[in-house]
Every structure is written in C-alpha cells, then in structure tokens.
## 1
Amino acid sequence: MANEAVKYVWEGAIPLQIHLHKSDVASHPSPPPALVLAPRIGYLPLLIPHIKPYFKDSLPPGEDSIWFDYKGVPLKWYIPTGVLFDLLCAEPERPWNLTVHFRGYPSNILIPCEGEDSVKWNFVNSLKEAQYIINGNCKNVMNMSQSDQEDLWTSVMNGDLDAYTKLSPKLKMATIEDEFSRKASLSSPQSRQGATEMDVAGQIKTARVPVRLYVRSINQDFENIEDVPGIDTWDDISYLNRPVEFLREEGKCFTLRNAIESLLPEFIGDRAQTSGEERSRDDDNTEEADGLLREMGEIKLARIQGIEMKLEIPFSWVVNNLMNPEFYLHISVLVKAPQR
Amino acid sequence: MNSGREVSDGRLTVEGFSVAARAFADKWKIHNQSFPPWSWVPLINRTLHLSNQEEGYLSLEEILILSSLEESPEDESLNVATDCLEKEESVDHTILVQNQENEAHYYDFHIVYSSSYKVPVLYFRGYCSGGQPLSLDVIKKDLPSCSVSLLHESKWTFITQEEHPYLNRPWFKLHPCGTEDWIKLLSQSSISTGCQMPVDLYLVSWFSVVGQVVGLRIPLEMLN
C-alpha cells in the first residue's frame, strides 16, 4: 500500500526551460525554449521525445547525439532529474534553465546514452545493486520474468505508482522497521531470529541501506544559499555510492545525521581530523577539544526529493518514504569543509 | 567472516581489501618484473579534504601495447614493450615504442573495491598517445585471442562502459557475475581446512582469473 509521502515523491516534478544550444541552431530565427515538466524520479533522456519536436526544424543535418548541460556542466543522464536539480541548484531555480545539444557528445566525460534502453539498463542495474545490498543477493531481480521487468520499468517511466505498487512486491525487498511507530504496519509476521529469512517480505531488520551521497563542499559560511557559487565541473562534487550500516541500538534513534556522518567519518562526527594531525583519543584539555570542534566539517544542508531535511529525523522514516523506485536513497549534501 | 584474516564467504571487507591489495602489489613486484608495479592510490578526496589512507584502489597505468600485426598463439600475454635497460627504481616506468609501424595503445587498470557487492572490480581504459580513448572494438583487437573468446563465450564476464567511481570519466568495467561464488570454489580447492582463504591471497586468486580476460597473466609463484 503506497502511503501519502510516497505519492508526493512520485508526483514531484521540476519545470524545465530547455534552450537549444546555439551551435545546433541551423534556422533563423532561433527557436524559443521548450517548456517541459520533468518527473523528479525520471531521467533526462526520457524527455527527449517531448523535446525534439520543438527543435527538429532548427537542427543541422546529421545524426543526433543528445546531451544536456546546466551552466556549461554536462549533465550525467543516469542521475535522476530531481537529484540533479537538488544538487546543482543551491537556490532552486524555477523554471530550471537547461541547454540541450544534439551534436558534439562529450564522450570523454559522459558515458554514452542510446536513449531509453541505456536508461532502463541503468535502472535495472541499480535495482540489482540495491537488492544485493538489502537482501544479500539479487536473485529476486534476476528471477523476475522479462515481462514483469518490462512492466516495472514502464511503471517508473510513466510515473505510474499504482502499477509499480502491484509489481514491486515481486522483488521481495526486506524492509526497515520504522523506529517511530510502535506497531508493525504490515500484517505479515515479524522475523524474530534476525535477518536470515530474506525471502519473506515481512518487517525484517535489514542492516544495510543503499545510499548515493552527493557532496558539495564549501569553505565559508554564506548568508544566503543563493550566494553559494555553482559548480564548474563534476570534480567539485564528491560522489559516494556506498551502503549505510543501519545501527539499531536500544533507546537510541538512528537519525539521518547519523547516517550521513557514518559515510563521512573522517570529515565530520567523532573521527573528524584535519590532515597532519593525530587523532587524539583522550582529550582532557578542553581548549584543544574546542579547537578540534571548530576545525570539524559541518553539514549545512541535506536535500532529499527536494526537501530540506531536518537531520534529526529517524533514518528509517527517510528511507521508507523518500527512496527512489530503484530502492536507492539519493542524498544531496552541502558541507562546510573543516577549517585548518 | 570471522577474524578478518580469512575469507570464508568469498567476499571482502573494506579493510580486507586494503590488506589484500598491498599483498597483491608486493607479490606482483617480486614475481612479475616484466611489468611495472601496481601503486596504491588513497582516496584523498579533494572536495572533502579527506586523507583516508585506509581506503583506496590499486592502479597500473600506461601499459604500452604495440598493436601486433602478427598472430602469436603461443604467447598468450599482452605484447608489452619494456625497457630492459631501466634498472633504477623510478615511479615513471618509461616504456619505449619499439616499432613505428604500429600505433601505440596505452592501458590503465584500476582494481577498485565495491562496497555494495563486497568484492573487487576491475576498471580499465585504453587510449592513444594523443590521449584519445579507444573503443571496446579496438581494445578487443589488442587482447590475445583466448581472452576475446573468454569474453564472448562466458556467461559470467561482462564488460560495460560505466563511470569510474572516483574519477568522473567513462571507463570499462569488468564485473564477473558471482565473484564470491567462484572465489569460494578457489578456496575449497586450494586449502584443506574448508572454504577459508587467507585475505593476503584474495586478490592474487581473483586476479589469476580476472586478469586473463584482459590479457594480464600472473606467474604461478604469486599464488604461494
């Protein structure tokens, strides 16, 4: 049963204003930009059938190899559109102005994209990886019939949550128990002996959560978020594709902050250190301790599905409600670097 | 996984990978001197100012392959040109182009840890002296014929073009399906005490299989 938050996630969309790159304009006058509403959980290449009609009369002759850029940065087509927006626009721009190219694919920077097939392959691959992380194997995805896989992909492409909800139980993904609710929300019996029965789609305390973390680091505080400079290249972003080890401790709530800090232990949290310094274990000198604290990095902003997250929210809620259809949680983070 | 010194389920922890990587690089240096050594690249992350010596990947770069016009079925290794006169220890193992007729192709290999699957993965790319990347079709021509047939016939080796996990560039990725299963098989056959494999030997064993697909063979001495 899809809950309300998941519905909002699936309905989330970003208004795009897409400009044809001037080197691709073979007509006079140049065409006006195309206005497209892009689903957050979708991918830019899937919009091409909607965009191309606007520009086809303006294009020079030859074969198309389509790619997008935002302020000169080529956009990675396999990252969900919503994540690109949250990450690249510190201050959300509405509509989001993108440039489309039909020639000159930057194949030294972007992996090739052969339309919908490439996007689908990327989706299924991510789904397999997520299942491997959650269940310890990806046999359910592998054993899914060809037509079920097709239908699942189609439901994501069309933003059809009802169709997706009917099909996703076939994946038998283990779930995380919501920490804030006392009673189990599923009617199936809970496994009490630990997470060994992975084929039972009940409430199992899964230990690993698929996360893709995109980190932008700044060196100073900014008054307004819109003053944060844009990125020049993808090298300005640190990308971490690694699972969060979900820790269940008596009486403690594992928060979103805990999750993010667990992925960046050298940077923030207990193990933060600046280069050249020894980690000090027994720090009796409070002055020195304060100095270390000042030098630690700080999470300034964490965005998921366009929402600026309060870091104290239970991580289990975040995962269960805000993950993408391939079962990955994409988190865009703005951090202030440790001061040296 | 129990003590961390042994692997029993075919998978590695991130710490295990560090240990296995250094052991692999050391053995390679001793037993495989026709190649330059592998180097460990720590994940020093520019934007986050991380200096994480524990995590990183293995790198073997600028391997020069001279596209050979002749078939040499006996020689099943890559046709690597080396400068035999180079005796000093230097980071830059300059390799000379011997034959001007052939176009020089360079290869970089990275062994990267996958935290999702808990196994190593091989990334590689080929390029010309001008830096232009080589397509997979061209790369296949550089591989020995047995490697190419391995690629075509086997159901478990897949080469895909994906983004390097740390370098923001397209690389080729070799990801054998079920790595943990055949590592377990390798452990069973070599050690009598069940399926235990010492962490030190993990990458050596792994590479003895994976390396063949890209034409890099390792001497048997490395498996001791």
Note: Chain A touches chain B at residues 76, 78, 107-112, 129, 132-133, 210, 215-217, 233-239, 241-243, 264, 266-267, 274-275, 297, 335, 337-338 (CB under 8 Å).
## 2
Amino acid sequence: MDPQAVPEDEHQINLVIAHDQGHLWNVRDVKLAWTKYRIVGYLVGALPRHPHQSTMMGLPLKLLPEEVTLLLEKGFAKPITYQEMAELPSSNILDTFKDLREKCYHEQIVAAVQQRKQEIETFVDTILEGKAKKIEKRKKANSAVVEKEKNELTRENVIREEMRKIQKLPEHYQVIEIFTENPFIDNLRPVAADWTFPTSKMDKLRYAVFKDVWEHDQYLTAGVKFGGDFLVYPGDPHLFHATFIIKCVEDMECVNNNDLVSWSRIATATKKTLVLATLDQYGKVSYQSFKFIEDEFS
Amino acid sequence: MDSSLFTSGEELLNARGRDQTLPVVGEKLTEASGSWLEKQQVEARIEEHRRLLAEPKFVRRDQLATGEWLKESGMVRVLHETGKFWQYMGAETDIGKCLYPEEALYLIDTGELEVSYGDVALSLQQAQTVMLQDAHHVDQYLVYAHLSRTGCKVVRHQTHLVYTRYETQIGIDRHQVSKKGVKLKLKGKNKSNEAQRNKGKINTKNEALDEVMKEFYDILGPSTGSSSTPHATDTKKENSNKAKGDSKTVKEHIPEEEFTPYEKKRRELLDMLPTMQGEKIMSVSVEPKQFLPKNSIPIKPIYQISLEALNYYSLYDTTPQNVYNRREKYDNWNRKGEPWCKEGNKKYQDNRAHWTGACESDCTDWRKENAQFSVQWNKGCERDREKRRYRVRWDNNRDVKRRQYNRDGWMYGREQRGEDNLGWREQHWRHHDDRCAQPSHFNRQALDDEHRRDYDDNEHERILNQHTNERGLDGPEEGTIDYTKKPEWKTRRRRWQRKDVPFYPSCIVRLNRKVNSWKEYKRIVKEMSADKLLADGPGQTLWRGPTTPLIRPAMATSIQSVLSGCSMKNESIASSSMFNKEKLPQDMHLTIHYDVYLATVPYKKTDPGLPSKRITVMRDRNMPTPGQILEVSTRFHDDVPIVGAVVVNGEVRLYTLTSLTLPQPIDSLR
C-alpha cells in the first residue's frame, strides 16, 4: 500500500474525538483499521452477548494517541466531533425515533407470527397424531360425529386452526435495541476536532518510535501490561503473540543498570525481547535489543 | 433518514435465540511466515470478531429499566426499575430514585437500562458525551466498569463510613450511622451541573456527618430536646453502644471531598472528647440567636459539658467543694435558717456556680419575661424563693455570662435592665476582655427606684472584691479551690486514692475506659494491681511518676512479649506521619473515588459495612508519589486497603497502596 496516496472516502475512517481521546464506534471503521491500516486499538465496551466479563470486550475501540496522530497524518481518518450530541435532540430526530420504534414493533409482530407459523409447520404431524388419538377415544360414544371430525382432520385445517390461536405480540414483550453508536449520526453535523498530540518531548519520542516501527509493516499495541511503551507483533495480534517490548528512553547512556536487568528479565520470562528505542543525533530512531541469558557456567 | 443503523424487528426477534456463550479463541503463533494459510486464519478470526462486535444489544421491554437524564443535576432519574441493580447502585433523592452517571453508563453498556434525553433514547456514544465531563471522568468510569464487570459492587466513596481513632475505640463504627430521610436535594436546580453537584455533595456530606455526630452525642447522653426551649439536664456519662433510632433508609453515597479547615477543626474537637472526665455531664442547648453575642456562631445546637471539669478549670468558680450535694446544701440552709430574703439577709451569697436541674414549671412573673431562665423553687416556702441558680451558658469562646440578680433574688427584667445593661458580674468579667478598654460599670440608672434604694454600694464593693484575687482578676475565693490537690470530684470514685477508705480488692473496680469483656476487665484489674505493687515496692522510684520502664516484670514470660513492649506502636508512626500529611499540600492529596465490596461480601445499602477496598483513580497516567502513598495510607484508621487505579489507554491497572508490616525476626534473637 502506498502510504502517500490519499484513500478514497469509502476507506476513510470517521474518528470521533471526545474528551481528548479518539474512539471508533462503528464496526466498519474498526475492521478497516484492523485490516487496511494495521491499527489495533483496545476495546473498552461490553460485549453484547456477554457483558459481565472482562476477557472479551466490545465496542467502542479506543485508540492510542499515537495511533490517532498516525491516522491523521497519513490521511486515513478525519478527526470529527459532534456538538449536537451534547444537546437536546431536535424535533426531526425525535419524530424519526418514534417512527422507527413503531416500525420495529410492527415488524416484530409480523416476525412473531411467521416464527409461530414455522413452529406449527414443524410440529403439525405431531399435532395430527395427537388429535387422531383423541378422536379414536371418542369414537365409541358418538360414531357419526366422530367420522365427520376425522374427515376434517387434515394438515391444512390443523395449521389454520393453530394460526387462529396466535395472539398479537404484546407491547411489553417487544424487543428493544440499545445502541452503541448513535443511530442518528448521519443526521448530525460533524465538526472538525482539534488534536494536538504529541506536545511534550517524551510524547514526540514515543510517536517517532511508533511511526517508525509501523512503517516497517509491524503491528503495535500498548505495552503497559509488560512494563513497556509498546508491544510489537510480527502479524495481526488476532493470530500472533508479541515478539518485542519497546521502551522509549531519551538517553541510552543514562539507563539505570538495575532497571535494565528488571526489564529484560520481564521480557525473557514472557518470551519476548526487550528493545530500547531512542532518537539519535540526526533525529532518526535507533534501537538496541537486550536478551537475558542464564550463565552457562553457573 | 438512513435507518440502516436500526436493526429490523425480525432480526431483533431472531437474535433472542442466539448463542450467548463466548467463542473459544484459538492458539496464537509466535512467528510469522507470511503464508497463505496464515492470511486465511487471520481473515477468519477478524471476521468472527467483527460478527461478535456487530451483534445488537437488545432486551425485552418488560425487563428493561428506564430513566431520564437530568442535565442540571447530573443524575439519571429512574422511571421504571427492574432487576437487582438498585440493591447497590443509585441514591435516594427528593425527586425519586436516581443513578450516578457512571452507574447509568455501565447499565446502558450492559443493556439493562435505557436513558432518555428529550424523549429520545441515548446511545452509549451519546451518553458518554453527555454524562462524562473530561478525560479524568472517563478514566473513573473505566475503572468503575472494569471492577463492576468482575462482579464487585462499586459505590462512590462514603465519607460517613470514615471513623476517627476515638470512634473506632468506642465502637461506634459497629453500629448504624445513617439517618432516615437524608436525601440528595435535586429539586429546583437551576445552576450548572458541576456547581450543583458539588453543592449537593458538600451539603449532604456535612449534613450526614453532623447527623453522625449528633447520634454520637446522643449516645453520650440523652438530648435535651429542641433548642427553642433550652434547659439543662444532668446526665451520667454513658459509653453505651446501643444503636439509636428506627430502621434507617438508604444512606447517601457521598464522594469524599477534601476536608475543609472547618471539618478539620471539628474532628480535632472530637478527638478532645476523651479528655472530659467527671461524673456529671450537662447537655446545654444553645440559646436562641437573639440572646447570643453578635458575632458568635454556634457550631452545634447542643453542647455536652462536664460540670465538674468545668468547675475545676473555671477561674470564676467560687463554689465550696461541698456544694455539689444540693440536697445537703438546702438542708444546711434550712437548718441555718438564713433565708435570702430581703428583710433578713445582709450577706450576699451570690455567684455560686449552681447548675440547674430539671426545669420546674412553677415560676414567677419575671420568668414569663425571661422564659429562657430556669429557676428551681423550694416548694412550700415562699421565703426561700431567693434560692436562685445561675444559668451558665458556655459558648465557643468560653465566655461565662451571668444574669443579673438583685439582692432579693429577683431577676432583673430586660426592660429594667435595659438592652445594654450588664450585670455587675458581667462587667467585672469584662475587665479581662481585651476589647474593652475600660470596664463599664453597673448601670444603676436602669434600676427602678425601689431597687436602687436597696442597693448597697458597700455591699457591691465587697462582692466585687470577694471575687478578685491578688492579681485583681476575677477568681475563686481564697481557699475555695485548692489546685495543688486533686479535687474531690476527681477522687471521689477512686476508692483506693482516698487515704481514709480501705481498699477492698473483692469489690468491682471502676475503670476509666470501656472494656468489651470480663476477660479484658480482669486483665486490666490485674495489671492495675500489679502496677500498684510495683509502685509501693522497693523499686518504687522507677515505677512512680510519668516515666516508667518500657518492660514490666509481668512481660518477662517470653521474648515476644518483651519485644512487643519495646516495639514502636502504630499510633506513633501514624502520628509522626501527621507531619508528612501537613507538609503535603492539600491539592496533592489523593481523592478516594470509590468503595469496592467484593462479589463474595454481602452488601446492603442500609448497612454497607466497611468496604473491601478503597479506590483512588490517578490522573493522566501518573503513578502516586511516596508522599501521596504515605498520606493516603495513614488517612484512615481502619484496615481497608487503598488501591490506586491507573488507566493507560483504556487498560485499567490496579496497585495496592497499603503498607505492609513485616514480621519481626524473633528466631534470630533466640
């Protein structure tokens, strides 16, 4: 992929900036970020099918500040914010909401009838058998009436009779959807948002390292789990473990030896390699990896 | 209008039967070969993940709680409640049940609550925009959600569950502290969210704390009723731990604010309470405002005063030590036959500090004029109505005011005395008031002719002088109080300190402090008798006085007990850390945001108990400094661990900030 080419609109991500943080609320944008732009992010919402656990999370996808800056710099995303979301909804939105809720309810009524019909058709043979047995039992009492009933006992009649019994889906049984992304977002006016990261020296160093590693076709995520700044993956994090823990230091010479030992022990214990990254005198990122090796002679 | 973001009714209905279990994630690889197979695997996993994320959140209408967002109050009012979340979430307010923003957000996220704003249901995206103020607020919400997902019950930090050392010592923390009817006031809010929320928080916090303190005072002694009819009662000082009041309603979730200087002073005052000794405690209600000095602001409506301590420490006291037995005194008077009537008595036995007992209802005309004064009359003897008591009011500045009486024992009415008229006693007191350059003398002009005739200047001087000691200050009569010896009221209950009373070891010894069991009592008595033996034994010079050896002979049973005698107590460490607390600027103190109750700990709003952990959310990914850790870990006098939550790019990391006590190496000393 040519990083200089400006992508088309359909490949543009709507990056919503709120409270100085960037989130992706749309599944389409999330997949685009994962597949096309190698931006991984971190899911912070509840998974719809199983909300009360924290191993597998759902939308929204929170992006690192470095990821946001990269997307903006490369032109892959537009930073937007919606002022109208903080205000009361307009009458237009209110009417649309009510109409759509009503429409959803009616669709559910129809769908409920269809579901019930399918159930009946599935079990019509069983129902037929049961009715036939009952008729046999009553045959002895009044054979003439029973004969008539027996003739009328057909699949269609049974289905018709069961369908007549179907009641309309009551309102309190209707299924309500709770939205993650604002369903009226297309009707809101997006406003260009300000994004000022990076500002401090350390932030600039971190972003330079992030961008350099990204441009080497690697995947990066936050490294706080292992005490580092970033984790580097050889491929998509869905399939691969991280191989490097990157720690950004301003001056390689000033790194404390004890810290170096503790960082490298953590990396080795988790089967990764510690990499210290810094900016050289020319402003280019330079790397130094460390591996902890047990003394062969001890 | 593009309605593609709305799932169709059919899909929603079909989604009811979807599998709710989590899919199993396959193994991950460590090295990438770039093969076609790996690409297919990646695509499959991403697609499966995308499908999981795209599933709609839905709930049946009758199982969905509803609420509405109140922008001015910053809360969500619950309109329809379902499920069990109310058991540990939300707060009672004057407009109904309300949820805090982070609680409402979490319930929206898990699909249990629908919040409407302007009659339109809020999506999670819009709810976060509307309910959260800034990045730190977002971090707090993430911490809340992270802990709640694991099953913990997370509530806002409740300051009324914070007890001082003294309160823990007397066991007040074991009892119900909430008061019925304490609710957040949200009605009629016109101001901004932030100002209103803070105002509501502070008011409820102070209100709740005051209620706690009020209940504490009630435990010390029965209250005297409303302040509109103040009268003093003698009460025994009780360290009873009976929980007062009826069943309580939901307590407020009061987030901790930094303590104001007022609050600090109040807590210091509370810590002073253990120094009060003496038998009789008087509950004194504060006078109505018009009778107080102009600039005085009473902190509380009822004050507890130790009568004997007051008398002992008061410079104005002139009471002979045998006056406390009022009955005896009256009998003496009766026997002596010295009525204080106008005709007979030239002596002016004034200015004894008598404290009133229960207010008697039979009163004279002047009492109708001055309804706040209580006078006890000797029933059946009109001549003895001169027996008068002074009402002592003790306000914050420890000024003692006396009411003006004439020689007949009649209280001067306000009209007679005049608004600015001071009693001769008061003006004498004002000699010591720096604000008065010259004492104003008794305004005799205010007296009517009859009383002025009766007033004897010489008598006045004698009375003034009798209360003036060598330094010219208002003081006790000579020989009235001997400050070199322990006063009788202090030694009265200590039988072994009276030389003339033999010490009976078989009798129940009264202790100064409360004990929780017979075992503890016996241990303390045993220690006391051992101390007595030491103090009377051959090494008494060692054991008498304020400085005694650290290790007592009774401790010489094991090295462990000897070491425990030598070890520094926790209180001293805590008190030395007070220095650090003061050195740490107030704005650097960590704010406790949440109290967490683990999933296995039963939680009831009406009686939550101590939390399992207290959480403070750090700002801007910073870790707490050592000073902050020391301050926050010594702020509370209970064993609840403090946990610092650091949110880094959406990931919540929890770090325990409580100090550990390392075990003592006893083995190395043997």
Note: Chain B is about 30% helix and 10% strand.
